[in-house]
Specification:
Elements lengths: L5 E5 L3 H12 L3 E6 L2 H7 L6 E3 L5 H6 L7 E4 L5 H13 L4 E5 L3 H9 L4 E3 L6 H9 L3 E6 L4 E7 L9 H4 L1 H5 L1 E8 L2 E3 L13 E7 L3 H5 L10
Parallel strand pairs: 1-2, 1-4, 2-3, 4-5, 5-6
Antiparallel strand pairs: 7-8, 8-11, 9-10, 9-11
Length: 226
């Protein structure tokens, strides 16, 4: 069984708290940290694992067990210095994915240079959306079009390889509509439904929100018994 990812959110301002709260609501294991004790005390009702600590200190990060956390979200855009230091330390400690909130597009570039795997600019991406992206295993990105529909990027599943969209009939099976195919960093909106799909492709689809979970389910195992 695939291990659930663990998360840490450093900085519990409005953005950081919204990310952490959304992750907790979805059942994820989340460590939330802020250096302001009052902020930590106010957040602990919604986020059980809250700590008051200085995450720019490598020894503190070691004590928090950051080495074993899969994804760290650094939501301290008010201090570029703290964000840079924490990003560097997390990568040095072996954190696989570090996501840093930025106060400007220039700060985003700086944080990417020092090791951030992804940067987010709050004016363009809400904390709730980031959390949903992180939780949508198998989905590369989610854009909410309405309360009922979302646009999602998904990888070609192994059981889809070598088959065409016409053969797969995804609209009927999963209630999704393929609107584009990304391959070799090129987006193609003219889709030939007879072309076999390849694992190098990413499908851009519009799906009913209530049907998205069906896409997360693993493919049924084939019965090889004669």
């Amino acid at each position: 069984m695939k291990k659930k990812k663990t998360y840490a959110v450093f900085g519990l301002g409005r953005y950081g708290k919204s990310v952490a709260t959304e992750l907790v609501k979805s059942g994820a294991e989340v460590l939330a940290v802020d250096k302001d004790e009052a902020i930590v005390n106010a957040a602990i009702a919604d986020i059980p694992f809250c700590k008051c600590a200085d995450v720019t200190d490598v020894e503190v990060l070691k004590q928090l067990g950051v080495k074993s956390i899969d994804v760290v979200i650094i939501a301290m855009a008010q201090s570029l210095e703290a964000s840079v230091m924490t990003t560097m330390l997390c990568k040095e400690l072996g954190v696989e994915t570090v996501i840093a909130k930025c106060g400007s597009t220039m700060n985003c570039k700086i944080l990417e240079k020092v090791g951030a795997d992804k940067t987010v600019y709050p004016e363009k991406e809400s904390g709730t959306r980031l959390a949903k992206n992180l939780l949508s295993s198998g989905f590369i990105d989610i854009i909410e079009l309405s309360k009922d529909a979302s646009m999602v990027e998904i990888d070609v599943r192994p059981e889809w390889e070598g088959k065409s969209l016409m053969e797969l009939n995804l609209r009927v099976k999963y209630s999704i509509n393929v609107v584009a195919i990304i391959q070799n960093k090129k987006i193609n909106t003219y889709i030939d439904p007879t072309i076999p799909l390849d694992k190098s492709m990413t499908l851009v689809v519009i799906a009913n929100v209530n049907k998205l979970n069906k896409l997360k389910q693993p493919a049924p195992k084939l019965d090889t018994k004669a």
